[in-house]
Amino acid sequence: MGLPPKPWPTGQCEELEPLVRRVLAPNGSPFTYTGTQTYLVGSDSGLAIIDPGPDEPGHLAALEAAIGDAPVLAICCTHTHRDHSPGAAPLARRKDAPILGCAPLALDTGEIRADAPFDRSYSPDRVLRDGEQIEGPGWTLSAIATPGHTSNHLCFALEESGALFTGDHVMGWSTTVVAPPDGDMADYMASLERLYGREDRIFYPAHGPAVTRPRQFLRGMIGHRRQRERQILRLLGEEERSVTGLVPVMYKGVNERLWPAAGQSVLAHLLDLERRGLVGRSGDIWAIAS
User: Fold this and answer.
1) Sign of CA dihedral 209, 59, 75, 117
2) What are the record keywords, sorted (predicted)?
3) Which of 20, 102, 131, 270 is most exposed, with minimal Cβ within 10 Å?
4) Per residue in 115-149, pLDDT tens?
């Protein structure tokens, strides 16, 4: 899906349902769609802020305007990529609010990464365990562990309305990048299956439009990843290939600017297939396991 025509509703506070509002950050790109969507959950009696986004003055000012005089009871981060969590600390200082949510994570791998780098400044007041809840006046958020895109990824379920805030685990505009070594395809697929077993009414992703038919959408995502896996096995059955040899064939017609990100997910598939004994490698060259 390409980017929609401008103007985008950057900085505007949009009401999505009685307990949910959204403010779009000014960081649109081919990797973030129109930008990171920060969600305000609750009412003037007390709010939770989900994915405060980048530490960008205009975005923080828009969030403060949307919050008004409402007490901020929690600032929740789904994961620690730089387009999601850096705004947590300055917003916490301004609103005297605790930072809750995913565990901190920073990797020093020396590898070139196609997705956003990790936020090394993220320091939560409390890490939420799977199933742990945050409560406010008239609302309850439950943490749902969904590793895969990153090992520390959480979704947040709004129990009162059946909404699920899916961060980057499920996006409304594109498939999610799964970038090793922290991203793990087996974990990602298991997390998709976990959400498929739930009965959420609607998904609110950090990027792209809301998903109004979640289980149908998840079936498509799971099917897409399984198709990519079969495609890799078929191509390797024809001849040995590197990741950079697979990507142009698998993603023919896709903007070449996105090929590095696609290559990360292809590598994640290969590592999963290797663990399952279906492929092997010699250096950078992959082949069907003998």
Assistant:
1) positive
2) Hydrolase
3) 131
4) 558 899 999 999 999 999 999 999 999 999 999 99
